[in-house]
Specification:
- It comes from Coprococcus comes.
- Keywords: Cell membrane, Cell shape, Membrane, Transmembrane, Transmembrane helix.
- The protein is mainly alpha-helical and 172 residues long.
- The protein has a single domain (2-171), classed as Arp2/3 complex 21 kDa subunit ARPC3 (Orthogonal Bundle).
- Helix content is 80%, strand content 0%.
- The protein has helices at residues 2-24, 34-46, 48-66, 72-85, 97-119, 127-171.
- α1 packs across α3.
Length: 172
């Protein structure tokens, strides 16, 4: 129950930061995608199921408070969380290279999917322009923010796992 509450608070805080503080810190109207960082992190830290659940709620929050189609972002984030869950077996929390690579890959994939579904299907075929001016700058900004936010998420996950182990050992 405590994990659910902390995850809900983390998702809400990241969404609020993304839609308020980082709107003011935007570079050329590009903001980092904090919800991708949260979704990817929980995916490779906790597995496919939790990655999907966190991704669903991140996307649903984005759909409800800013999207045009209900479930559009929920589906995208859910798939990103699920995909990152495949890397749980090779995840070591001391190594930051894998999380950075997975978050960068998730952000790139997210940008390409958004382009295909929201622009290309409307006959906007300027992919290189979108890649150069939206996808890559957002990816770089997200990676820079990941260096700080990932450490916070990792610390929260470690504390929750320690507490879960202590409470489980009391019942055994």
């Amino acid at each position: 129950m405590k994990r659910i509450l902390i995850c809900a608070v983390l998702i809400t805080v990241c969404f609020l930061l993304e839609t308020t503080v980082f709107q003011k810190l935007a570079f050329a109207s590009i903001i980092p995608n904090l919800l991708i960082i949260v979704t990817s992190s929980f995916g490779f830290m906790r597995g496919q199921k939790e990655g999907m659940i966190i991704g669903f709620f991140c996307g649903l929050l984005k759909d409800i408070l800013g999207g045009n189609l209900l479930g559009f972002y929920a589906l995208i984030y859910m798939l990103i969380g699920y995909g990152n869950g495949f890397f749980q077996r090779v995840f070591y929390d001391e190594d930051i290279k894998l999380p950075l690579a997975l978050i960068a890959g998730s952000e790139f994939l997210y940008g390409v999917v958004i382009y295909v579904l929201l622009f290309m299907l409307k006959s906007d075929f300027h992919f290189l322009h979108y890649l150069r001016h939206v996808i890559m700058p957002e990816l770089v900004y997200t990676i820079l923010v990941t260096l700080v936010l990932y450490q916070i998420i990792l610390h929260i996950n470690r504390r929750l796992e320690e507490e879960e182990k202590r409470s489980a050992s009391r019942f055994v």
